[in-house]
């Protein structure tokens, strides 16, 4: 078991899920509200059990400051009902995560209760975290960092389409299946909203991580603005890109507010002006000055600079290939997934603009042309619908004003 794990389950402990049993191999890490384990799935039949050789990660709800353990059983010091309160939030986290089916978001297998607490099992990504990779490399080439940013943005875009914010995006919460595929994890601070942009629970939004959280996140209570406040995740995306490019933790939001964005640091590393502007705008201290949605962030990227890493023996990035021939030109590419996602969510204008960007860059041209043809009638239909809606609203307002004027005249007489 790794060091600094407090009261973790012992190696060989068997957990009984609803669909599978799991044997604990070792603990992977511990936070304030849980311990994550590596486990192997055990296939249970009527006549016996066999090991499947399938490894999964299992997250256990465990508050080490108030919980203890007797053998496998979790004991609780109550602490004014905090354990029960946050256990419900833990279950909600797992349920919300299970609904996010996306190529760059961790997949949940099942949620279950045992040992006086709750667990959920999920896919195990064994490539280490993006943060560990950045430390290993020192910092990432601009083209590689931009490619990674597109993958992360794709995951956030899908989350936002489901009215959910991550609220704790940072390199340590991004896992690497390999050097070309990232997976977003740790939804402990994530928040579900309704279609009006109102939080579905009264639990206050967490403050996030210094350097990656905007100023307004610490005091956000759901009543500050209308609509889903996606600019908080966009700030963290900018901070994550900054860390990739520099190898350094981003400055705190208050520091950027008072002293300005450290443009010079990126210039020292020969980062292009376009990418510097991209990061600076995403990390603007005032939310009104940031990109207002992920589509706007993606549209500002210079896709010609995107490169995939060539890794030499020992795991270090030696060099990168030229950008144009290196993006995935298939229906599975991130930009294509984003366009399809926007269309599914009836965000036709945003999808059309991204298609035009693809055509201008001479990338995925056949796909983009086809989608443009499909989108034109949809845009016209939506415009007519919006026009009719506006006409109806104007008519209703006119009727109400006329009615009030008549009443006011009768009252004055």
Distance between the termini: 86 Å
Q: What strand order characterises the main sheet?
A: 1-2-3-4-8-7
H/E order of the elements? EEEEEEHEEHHEEEEHHHHHEEHHH
Derived structural class:
alpha+beta
Mean pLDDT, nearest integer? Answer: 85
Helix content: 25-40%
Structure report:
The chain is an alpha+beta fold and 413 residues long. Helix content is 39%, strand content 19%. The protein contains 11 helices and 14 strands. A hairpin with a 2-residue loop joins strand 2 (21-31) and strand 3 (34-44). The N and C termini lie far apart (86 Å). Mean pLDDT is 85; it is low at 321-332.
Short description:
The protein is about 40% helix and about 20% strand.
Search tags:
413 residues; alpha+beta; two-stranded antiparallel sheet; 14 strands; globular
Protein topology:
Blueprint: E1 14-16, E2 21-31, E3 34-44, E4 49-61, E5 67-70, E6 73-76, H1 82-98, E7 108-114, E8 117-123, H2 130-137, H3 142-161, E9 164-165, E10 174-178, E11 181-184, E12 191-192, H4 231-246, H5 253-259, H6 263-268, H7 273-282, H8 294-299, E13 309-311, E14 317-320, H9 334-344, H10 348-360, H11 365-412
